[in-house]
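Field: sequence (string)
Field: structure_tokens (string)

Example rows 1 and 2, in order.
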Amino acid sequence: MADIGEVVRRLQLNAPRGGPDEVSQLVARAAPAIDASEIVIYLADYTQTLLVPLLGAGLDRDQLPIETTLAGRAFTTLAIQRAPDNPDRVWVPLLLGCERMGVLEIVSPAAVDETMDAPAWEVAVNVAQILVNRRLYGDVVERMRRRMPMQVAAEIVWGLLPPLTFATDDLVVTAILEPCYDVGGDIFDYALNEDVLSVGLFDTCGHGIKASTLASLVVSAYRNARRCGLDLVDTAISIDRWVRSEHPNFFATGLLIELDRQTGRLSMINAGHPGAMLLRDGKAIRELPGPTALPLGLGHLTPRRPRVHVEDLHPGDRILAYTDGITDARSAEGEQFGLDRLVDFVNRALNDGLPSPETMRRLVRAVVGYQDDKLEDDATALFVEWRPPHLPLAHLRDLAALRP
């Protein structure tokens, strides 16, 4: 009989005593407590195309393609998978909140019984927490996730990014960034403070170290303004002044978004950035207006303050934001990926009912494939979804009546 409490106690008590390279052995030693012979951690690589085993002593596993394996299906669908021809093995998504880290392989004679699913989920949640807590103390997790050397410009950007996915009962934010090993100019950030979700997506001019250095300044200035309590307009002005002060010959485009989770009121400044798409009922219905300000760093060229566009969302609405590396991607024949193809892809993904992180993963894989795996520019896409369970239809009508 599986003793899940014993497994959790063993993992939590012993994890702080070792480094991140010992996590796989710690997890393997806990296997007998849930009647398993083996528990193996697989981590998604940076491109989210492979699951790479984090192996302890005595274990031998190959990396697994996400697109064509049961392990990959567990990762993409966020659901436990088991093979009819191999019933003693289950694949469990490795999640921290909604952040997809990889999968857990559990080998046990009891795996055929679906009553094992709940203990398997609990083990996976605890393993994910341990990985997040311990990976900062060593490089084994980072090394395992990298299929090639990462350039310094990309190292700077990835070190600044928040988790790719964040979710609550009523909000989802998820993003994806390519090329993983050589990014420089694209960066994003988000924060939830009480009822306001703040999101920033930025694309700095240039490439390499100069672009990533500017990206570092932009996202740091954004966080500083937000944490100082500045409103959206003053936040844009603050970032603009810092860019002009420290990088007078450069600029960054950006989207600055605030979403009130109680009312669904979205406020946005578009600083010379590609527009954002409003998605509703499984389809893209229109592009949000923009730009409403000059690119960040060029604000001195106009006396006008940045203008805020306000949009009242419906429950279930999504905002798709992206950088021009998505729409400007070109095929071997020179044809742009373009906005129409982007909208068509997103519509099909939404109609397929995919989780938002999987939609983002497939979108970027489609863009990369469109350019034969050779992106000319960073390609970043970001979803914001508002899905309030607490607002009945009548209350929504009342809110609409109160709005100007």
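Row 2 begins here:
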Amino acid sequence: MQPLEEPVPLYGPEYKRDPYPLYTAMRDKCPVHRVTFPSGVNAWLVTGYDAAHATLNDRRLGKNHALGNDGWRALASIMPEPQHSQLQVHLLHQDPPKHTTLRRLVLDFFAPRRVESLRPRFQQIADALVAEFPATGPIDLVERFAARFPFLALAETIGLPPALAKDFRREWGKVVAPVGPQDPRRPEYERLLHGLQSYIAEVVAHKRQTGGDDLLAALVTAHRNGTLSREELDSMIFQLLVAGQEPVTNQITTALVALLRHPDQLALLHREPDLLPQAVEELLRYDSAFELTTWRFLAEDADLHGRRVPAGDSIIVSLCAANRDPERFPDPGRLDFDRSPNPHLAFGHGIHFCPGAALARAELQIALGTLLARLPSFRLAIPEEELDWIPAVLGRGVSGLPVTTD
């Protein structure tokens, strides 16, 4: 069958509100499509589950930006020099053997056993946040909880001290947005970028002075002993601070929206909170906040699931489209907490499987469990069509979620 008219635009309010009809149409035609983003970047999008799974494990594909061609680099490599070289050499943009070395530095700190040991502290954080909810009136669950809890839990996990954690600005996460050189928002983007760099330098200086047995101290030690370059050290901290909390913030919002759209499942969780672990897995599948993967590249022209893809063109995988593939998930548009097995790809697969998956799962379980206990009945305080879905290229979520219990 012929693909949709290409390149297929992957942007706009309607797309961000509900991308699934488009993903269904694309997946039904063929597994790989040429797509375009607001910045003018074109890419090859992989949609079906089997194709996505194979692509995430395809050793022909590399993540290093040096593999991208000049056309991609001019538009998609948005971070200017020298910042691109200083902050973009982290795990997501590395291939073996360097990727193996960097990943080994963080794995123990995100291991399931260690995350479980931190659960009581995470629960204390969540309880403190909901204790500050107003007794009456609408509550914005993003402002009051979802935008705060994941970062505070991350700070505990990586060893970011409270004095520095309170100075972190969530808006620094916008430095991963597609703001090209000609975009009128570019001056503000560069201001945020410089602010984040200064913050990372402050974190490094603090850990050099205080040491410790936490992840940030371990990374500083790895730089001191020559395992990490200074650019790699700063990039790893950049990745932790930005990618380590914003996706969980967004996943809390997509989960809550899904529950509000399915009051029967919301009521089921109120009645049976022990269902939370499997409910979280289904909510991750149903509407993953990490909608698209970051770029991958072929070193040579090659076939990719029936399409000829030139070397250096960007290739991305739609995790959301794969997780709604009816060939793998019967009745994929149904939210089903009894779904088993549930091999969703919300955290990716292969060597780039999210190292913080255990942490994210614990945060989501604690966040939803705490909110459901604090808000035994809640509903949207605005019409659903007024929800503001973030225009992020790779992620899904809402910028605000006002609810009422009245």
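free_text_note (row 2): The first strand starts at residue 8 and ends at 9.
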